[in-house]
Amino acid sequence: MNPLRDPRDRRLPRVPDPCVLVVFGVTGDLARKKLIPAVYDLANRGLLPPGFVLLGFARRDWGDGDFETVAKEAARKGARTEFRDDVWQRLAEAIRFLPGAFDDDAAFDKLAETLREVDASHGTLGNAAFYLSIPPAAFPVVLQQMERTGMADNARSGGWRRVVVEKPFGHDLGSAQELNQMVDKVFGAQDVFRIDHYLGKETVQNLLALRFANTLFEPIWNAHHIDSVQITMAEDVGIESRAGFYEETGAARDVLQNHLLQLMALTAMEEPSSFDAEALRTEKRKVLGAIRPPKDLARYTVRGQYDQGWLAGQRVSGYRSEKDVAADSRTETYAAVRLEVETRRWAGVPFYLRTGKRLPRRVTEIAVLFRKAPHLPFSKTDTEELGSNQLVVRVQPDEGMTLRFGSKVPGSAMEVRDVAMDFLYGEAFTESSPEAYERLLLDVLLGDASLFPHNQEVEDSWRVIDPIEQFWAEGGEPELYRAGEWGPAAADEMLAGDGRAWRRP
Ligand SMILES: NC(=O)c1ccc[n+]([C@@H]2O[C@H](COP(=O)([O-])OP(=O)(O)OC[C@H]3O[C@@H](n4cnc5c(N)ncnc54)[C@H](OP(=O)(O)O)[C@@H]3O)[C@@H](O)[C@H]2O)c1
Q1: How far is ligand 1, taken at its centre, from the CA of residue 28, in Å?
Q2: Lower CB density within 10 Å: C or N end of the chain?
Q3: What's the 242 CA to ligand 1 centre distance in angstroms?
Q4: Among 36, 59, 146, which is best to mutate for testing ligand 1, by the most ligand atoms less than 8 A from CB?
């Protein structure tokens, strides 16, 4: 090792070892919209190794050429960076396709043989990452096939073998534990990468920079100064064509259990000793392990379902009228909860989490609301327009940060009103942010697990969600809210009962 080079120095672009990326379910929605474009973007940025092979596996009767045509179209449509024919040509030379169903032993034997061939033809040194972009029900059979053929075995391959597991990681604690055991039986713990694509977002990583690279925020990042935290992920879209998935899942399992609890963990965690996967995950786990489901579930959990309404000038139908949704469906499309972190730093600070579909606009943000000044030496009328100080991290869109504070209104009176100071990624930097999948795929190939939740984090998150789901399952119907509005009235009442109100993002 070069003694002058700090191994933690990440300014220089890191290029992975020569390797194969095997995508199971390569004809699916995720592969077309996200994975293939991300592979192209990495190639375009020069971040793929010279010996790189993309191997698609699915049950179409395609040859390499057919797959290449489809992949090219997907890259052209979905890539973040400019589409360049010369980049594609180089990538296309390293694209392979293998037809087969997951229960087809011969197809997996052929895959194992192809991996050996590719080692010889492209110098991939036995290195391979397997991306499970497949329905969760197919995880067991694919894992069994990989175990049977020895494909997951680092020692046998002579290189590294890694697996990428897409969410959902189970549908409750029991099924998550089963899945974790299944994956851990086939792959070593350090070779398992669970994707929560929110962690690949630049703004989410910036939360760590904001908190731990500055001196400004950390001294006030605690219950003495913070009144409450609101974490919102709102979507204006409905369920699109994913009724089958959504009917089984609902908003809490789809978003709260993973994305929102991960954002909460990053907001609340202590400073890690380094940004190694181990150190980061340890701190996140401590927070997730200290979150308790609300004691009063009736008061501090809300679920809703969108009814017909208007969005962006268009009439949209209610959830129960969507294609393939049961007319009496009780699936929630909106979920809000109040959680607390039982630590000295956060004692008594409520974290309000909410997510919903068919809300007025697509926005994800973390809003930290500070306590009001204990004494205001102004007349009451002068501060009528003064709210609480807020730090808002905008995860998407308009990535950036806003600081809201009171300022004197020009004039002879001492009138104070809220103003905002904005930091916008798009304005502060000339470089555009990589897509989350681009960043995460690269990290998988580099073997850097910092941005991937550990299985204990997944299980701790289910420990928070399971009692809520159970309570809802025993209760009545979700409350309807009109599409295009900010969720059911009960969500407003939940905060009003605490003397607070939701921010309007
Ligand atoms: N789509 C998203 O935006 C998104 C977001 C987050 C997480 N995810 C997760 O990512 C995974 C993939 O999602 P997706 O939306 O891409 O699903 P999808 O569109 O249904 O694609 C599933 C893929 O698996 C293949 N497949 C299914 N059963 C098979 C079998 N028995 N043998 C061989 N191939 C089989 C399908 O091949 P055929 O084409 O031959 O059916 C298809 O290529 C899921 O775990 C999902 O929860 C997806």
Answers
A1: 5
A2: N
A3: 11
A4: 59
Residues 273 and 146 in one domain: no
Reported as a single tens digit per residue, the pLDDT across 201-245 is: 989 889 999 999 999 999 999 999 999 999 999 999 999 888 988
Considering its fold, how many domains does the chain have in total?
2
Question: Looking at 146, 166, 186, which one is the last position of a domain?
Answer: 166
In angstroms, how far is CA 286 from the centroid of its own chain? 19
- Residue-wise burial string across 259-296, b where 16 or more C-beta atoms lie within 10 A, e elsewhere: bbbbbbbbbbbeebeeeebeebbbbbbbbbbbbebbee
- Domain edge (last residue) among 147, 166, 185: 166
The answer to the question of residue 6 being in a domain is no
pLDDT band for 8, please (50, 70, 90 cuts): low
Q: Which domain holds residue 67?
A: 19-166
Can 259 be counted among the known catalytic residues? Answer: yes
Catalytic residue among 224, 259, 375, 454: 259
First to last CA, the chain: 49
455 CA from centroid of ligand 1 (Å)? 22
Residues whose beta carbon lies within 6 Å of some atom of ligand 1:
25-31, 58-60, 101-102, 133-136, 138, 166-168
CATH code of residue 238 = 3.30.360.10
- 359 and 489, same structural domain? yes
- Whether the per-residue pLDDT at 11 is higher than 80: the answer is no
Atom of ligand 1 nearest to the CA of 25: 43
Which pLDDT tens digit goes with each residue over 305-339? 999 999 989 999 999 999 999 999 999 999 999 99
Ligand 1 centroid from CA 85, angstroms: 28
For residues 26 and 58, the answer to whether their CB atoms sit within 8 Å is: yes
Q: Which amino acid is at 412?
A: S
Cis bond before residue 374 (omega within 30° of 0): no
- Give the global pTM: 0.93
Residue 136: both structure tokens together: 């969760």
Residues 38, 158 within the same domain: yes
Q: What is the pLDDT of residues 330-376, one digit of tens each?
A: 999 999 999 999 999 999 999 999 999 999 999 999 999 999 988 88
Residue 1: pLDDT over 50: no
Same domain, 339 and 465: yes
